[in-house]
């Protein structure tokens, strides 16, 4: 049956109206991936030299055993961001005398056809053959290869399981990413433990007891079986849909939003859009990583206060910039329906302001611990938070009225430039320069406090006059609405 499904997929590909475009994209991606594979292969051949320089006082085999777990932790994180879920249009097959096990096996099989499953062998195999096979024999080298196979299969199916769970509940993805980041920080920043020592505890044991290589194989088999059961139980789309509906009922699930009425409903729906789709979710994930900017700019005397203003603006406003530059494109697939619905465009804009205020407030609260570097840092962060929800939000919505590029949320976030246009580059200029137009002259004159005060006052003025700016943005939208809707209809 797997060969039959493959033939059907090939026929569907060649009969698609976008075949030419798909082939061009695949060729470009193929060349890019081939280039990366060659670079990884070269890195693998010289891995022993690299490890000798990185750990000059340690045996190269011990160093190698210590980095394997680090690689797979990074591999899992990259898979969550970049690896696509294997798909098959199951509806036609469910009405035919085809066992569900066959459909699930096909999806499981195609899940292994990922470039991520090639990286570890290209990177580590040269070292295993050159060093470990020479020093410890073919049996130990085979044990390392088998353990890599098991860990690769485990990482592959674990990432797919998390991504499938995330499609039902976006918090699963956020919590998993946070756990991975905390594990890394616990080693490299807080020094609570050493991942390299943990890695050596297992892989170092393979040298004396090669049978331990069966443990990763069992882990991989168990993870495959968990995926198999999950897919088999949720193969019918109605079941998945019903569970989504039970999980996300309405905006009353968010007590904070229920008090805003129709605007709260719109914000609740947009939060679901952010959490359920890969590309919009990546804007939120990137914002969480930007929170680490403070460790770069606040703890280094080379960066003056102007850089602290920049870091504070980015940390509290990165979601506004990343998500807001595609503001209406996120709803491109149903934008015509929004225009003819009972929802007024005023409420639509109010919902955008409220969404940005809520998420930027969350990011601001995450930056509060940077008060460790001084109360002035917290004051600057508070000022730039006001600037972001007052001025940057208005600027982003103004430029959104000039973005006519459609975006398909069903596509992944990796190497996806759909919806991009020159407006994104134009937008970044006023967002980055505007605060320095006010703050810069006073900072140069040694009156930085006055510049910060004016930034805070300007942000507050825009917040207090938000109703006026909403009316201006609404009038501006009606001037461009036909170009926007026409652009969103072009697939």
What this model shows, in words?
The chain is mainly alpha-helical and 491 residues long. It is 77% helix and 0% strand. It has helices at residues 2-15, 19-45, 47-54, 60-82, 91-94, 100-111, 119-136, 138-168, 170-188, 195-203, 205-208, 214-233, 237-247, 255-258, 262-276, 278-290, 293-297, 305-324, 335-340, 345-367, 375-400, 422-444, 448-464, 466-489. The longest helix has 31 residues, at 138-168.
Silhouette: globular
Strand/helix succession: HHHHHHHHHHHHHHHHHHHHHHHH
Please outline the major beta sheet: none
Q: Give the beta-strand count.
A: 0
Overall mean pLDDT stands at 82
Instruction: Indicate the radius of gyration in whole angstroms.
Output: 26 Å
- The termini sit apart by 33 Å
The share of residues in extended strands comes to: under 5%
Q: Please, how many helices?
A: 24
Helix content: over 70%
Can you tell me the residue ranges where pLDDT is under 50 for at least 5 consecutive residues?
A: 237-252, 413-417
Structural class, please? mainly alpha
Features:
single chain, 491 residues
Could you provide a short overview of the structure?
The chain is built from 24 helices and no strands. It has helices spanning 2-15, 19-45, 47-54, 60-82, 91-94, 100-111, 119-136, 138-168, 170-188, 195-203, 205-208, 214-233, 237-247, 255-258, 262-276, 278-290, 293-297, 305-324, 335-340, 345-367, 375-400, 422-444, 448-464, 466-489.
SSE layout and pairings?
Elements: H1 2-15, H2 19-45, H3 47-54, H4 60-82, H5 91-94, H6 100-111, H7 119-136, H8 138-168, H9 170-188, H10 195-203, H11 205-208, H12 214-233, H13 237-247, H14 255-258, H15 262-276, H16 278-290, H17 293-297, H18 305-324, H19 335-340, H20 345-367, H21 375-400, H22 422-444, H23 448-464, H24 466-489
